[in-house]
Design goal:
Layout (H helix, E strand, L loop, with lengths): L9 E3 L2 E6 L3 E10 L1 H18 L3 E13 L1 H8 L6 H4 E7 L3 H17 L7 E4 L2 H13 L9
Parallel strand pairs: 3-4, 4-5, 5-6
Antiparallel strand pairs: 1-2, 2-3
Helix pairs in contact: 1-2
Length: 149
């Protein structure tokens, strides 16, 4: 049984995040994304994956996100992200601008280039409801097996 979403948001940098039981990491990006911000997310995802033992889903509201710095992009592509990639079952990105979609797509393709044998579903959506519906579909039907950006 799922625990209702917590309304308790924890700050990290200028952003907010929370974990929704059993396996969802939800982040609201506000302003520029720095390397330390990305490392904070990676650490939370790693801890959640360890706790669940069955992979995690990531939902990001980027409607108020600024730029993703070079340092943040490097953190995703670097060994810091090892172990998290394997446990990430699917992602939904809410409210991405055209530029944010392009940057995110390039980052995800770079990550996939390092590990081409496993495809993780990613969706760009306009609302939280659409994001939740997308992730629930993959949760119910064997996420991490099919679907791609």
């Amino acid at each position: 049984m799922r625990v209702p979403p917590s309304e308790r948001w924890e700050p990290f940098g200028t952003h907010l995040h929370r974990i929704e039981s059993p396996d969802l990491y939800y982040v609201r990006m506000r302003g520029d994304v720095l390397g330390e911000d990305m490392r904070s997310q990676i650490n939370v995802l790693r801890a959640l994956a360890k706790r669940t033992g069955d992979g995690v889903f990531w939902m990001a509201d980027v409607t108020a996100m600024g730029t993703v710095t070079t340092e943040a992009r490097r953190a995703v592509a670097a060994n810091e992200f090892l172990g998290v990639r394997e446990s990430l079952r699917g992602s939904a990105i809410i409210g991405a601008s055209f530029t944010a979609r392009v940057v995110s797509t390039l980052m995800m393709r770079a990550v996939r280039a390092l590990e081409p044998t496993r495809i993780r579903p990613v969706a760009f959506v306009e609302t939280e409801a659409e994001a939740r519906a997308f992730l629930e579909q993959f949760r119910m039907h064997g996420a991490g097996v099919a679907g791609a950006l």
